[in-house]
Design a protein that fits this description.
152 residues, alpha/beta, GTP binding, Small_GTPase_Rho, nucleotide-binding, P-loop_NTPase, GTP-binding
C-alpha cells in the first residue's frame, strides 16, 4: 500500500474527455457511453521514480451549471490537470489545423504549467505518461500553510 497520497483534480468543459481519461488510467477501460459527471472520485496507485503513490483522482463537472460547486474540489489539491475541450472541434469548424505541439508548449510556459502533454484516452496513447508526469509534479510540491498545486 502506498504511504504517499496525492490529490489530483481534473478540470475542463463538459464532454471534453475528463472522465474518460480518469477511467482509462484507473480501470484500463474506455467508456463507450457518455454520461455527464457531477462529481466523481477514483483512486489509483502508481509507482513513479521508485515511489509508490496513491492518487486520489477528482473528476469535476464541466457544465456551466456546476461552476459554483467546482471550487469545492480545489482545497488540498496537489496537481490540476486541464483538458482543453473544444480545441479540435472548434478548429475543424473554422477549417484550421490543430494546435502544433510547440504552440502548446509555449502556452504551457506562458501560464507557468509544469508540463504540456498530449494524449488519447480512446487509444490509451500517452495516458500513463500524463499521470506519471502529474505525480512527479505533485511530489515536487512541499505543502505550506497556503499550499500551492501544480498545473499540468
Amino acid at each position: 500500500m502506498a504511504t504517499i497520497r496525492k490529490k489530483l483534480v481534473i478540470v475542463g468543459d463538459g464532454a471534453c474527455g475528463k472522465t474518460c481519461l480518469l477511467i482509462v488510467f484507473s480501470k484500463d477501460q474506455f467508456p463507450e457511453v457518455y454520461v455527464p459527471t457531477v462529481f466523481e472520485n477514483y483512486v489509483a496507485d502508481i509507482e513513479v521514480d521508485g515511489k509508490q503513490v496513491e492518487l486520489a483522482l477528482w473528476d469535476t463537472a464541466g457544465q456551466e451549471d456546476y461552476d459554483r460547486l467546482r471550487p469545492l474540489s480545489y482545497p488540498d489539491t496537489d496537481v490540476i490537470l486541464m483538458n482543453d475541450p473544444n480545441t479540435l472541434t472548434e478548429l475543424r469548424k473554422m477549417k484550421q489545423e490543430p494546435v502544433k505541439s510547440e504552440e502548446g508548449r509555449t502556452m504551457a510556459e506562458k501560464i507557468n504549467a509544469f508540463s504540456y502533454l498530449e494524449c488519447s484516452a480512446k487509444s490509451k496513447e500517452g495516458v500513463r505518461e500524463v499521470f506519471e508526469t502529474a505525480t512527479r509534479a505533485a511530489l515536487q510540491v512541499k505543502k505550506k500553510k497556503k499550499g500551492k498545486c501544480k498545473l499540468l
